[in-house]
Amino acid sequence: MDDIANTKELYFSIKDTVQETQINLGNLSLPLISEFTEAVSRFIKGSTYIDLSEVRVVIEEGSLAIAVRPSPVIMPAITDFESINTSGNLDEIDSNRAKVIAELQDKARSNPNRTYTISDTSDRKRIDGKSIVISNKSDYRKTLEDQWVQTETYIYGKVFDIGGKTKSNVHLTLENGSTVKLDADAGLLADDSENRLYKEQLVRVKAEQNLRTKEYRKETLVSFEKYAPHFDEAEYQKLSAKVKSVWADVSDIVSWVEEARGNYA
Q1: pTM of the full structure
Q2: Which one, out of 74, 242, 249, 256, has a CA that is 20 to 30 A from the CA of 125?
Q3: At what angle do helices 95-110 and 75-87 cross, to 10 degrees?
Q4: 3-state secondary structure of 84
Q5: What does the DSSP assignment read for 124-149?
Q6: Per residue in 99-112, pLDDT tens?
Q7: Helices 95-110/30-45 angle, 10° precision
Q8: Dist CA 237 CA 231 (whole Å)
């Protein structure tokens, strides 16, 4: 069964027109290539860390098509593809993959000539019957209503980009390999005298949180926090000795605590 599953691939394509001419490998723009390959990468990764260097792809002839070669690494993405292809909704799949589909849906609605296709085969004769086709007429979405609430949280990660030409932000790499982009006030960054680039940082963040999936969106930097975790053996031993001396006259600490709480039973 696993051998059969591992023969499956994932095929992504985009069709659009530029000045009434169908896009092809000879007239693509860099933003379109970047946007499309990022969407493919995010769909493959989902919410878990995957080393994309293990994923092999082929750029196919046509408008712009990427065939992701069969590999055990892409099986979670294939499972979610099959779920969408069967049900048409995004409720039961990985939240990050659902977000990718929703974003592509929005782009297709904003660009009526654009169509995205995702299939588990690059065989032209089989694609039409085994595909997710995203256009301005499709309607892939979550059927369960999402509720988002304002919240604050803390994020710890390594800063790999900071600033921005037109919109200021901070990019963090988290321990699980995923990245987070935080909107940031330009004045806050300009007044920050510390060099934080390529350093581990604890940041305080405002965001919206989904009550069902617990995911965050619209993350905004509030502040950089001072955080330098370390274990001081000497300080620990000093505190331990102090605690022992305080409790030296108490023969049964558990009973003493229970009595103090009023748990006389």
Answers
A1: 0.57
A2: 74
A3: 60
A4: helix
A5: HHHHTTSEEEESTT---B-SSPP-EE
A6: 999 999 999 999 98
A7: 150
A8: 11
